[in-house]
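Entry 14: structure prediction run for Metallophosphatase domain-containing protein. Input pasted below.
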Amino acid sequence: MRLVCISDTHGLHDQVTLPPGDVLVHAGDFTSEGELEDVRAFLDWFGGVGSFGWRVLIAGNHDLSFEHLPEVVEPLIPAAVTYLNDSGVSIGGVQFWGSPVTPYFFDWAFNRREREIEQHWNLIPAGTDVLVTHGPPFQIRDGVGPGRESVGCPHLARTVTRVRPRLHVFGHIHEGYGSHHQAGTHYLNAAICDADYRVAQQPVVVDL
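Run finished. Output tokens:
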């Protein structure tokens, strides 16, 4: 199974060239602020681009309407797209789980404070092969600023260590783009936009 992984396109999806694959995965922040027009434009693109057999989508902290107006935006999701929100799906025998949750930061969408966030990670089941979250785990592709301060989630890091998925796809921290392998898990920050919100990073292909 060939996965094509992207994240953090922020409304600039038309500038992204996708390689062929079986499953297209987007790890959130497909809009700037979740406005309805932007949501429609992205979903039209995501549901029809390429010849992927499956398309897996989670929201991110910028996709505000997906938390605040789910009854409006979720019906717009094409039938060809599997939207995950603390939920999972089996594709060709591969178990996917997705969550949009990130640590609290200026009250964006799906932000959770420390006392709440662990409840979401506890939902991730054993046997998950591909974990898709919007944010990174602590100290893995999560550095920001000149000093590369780690801003990922420690609770998520502990959960990934426990569940040990084959692949963990995320974004959120644009500067963290790239791969890391540890304890049998391939960690992948698939952010397409760089720190200046320019499309400067490429989709990543992963063969399972």
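Notes: The chain is about 20% helix and 25% strand. Will compare against the previous run tomorrow.
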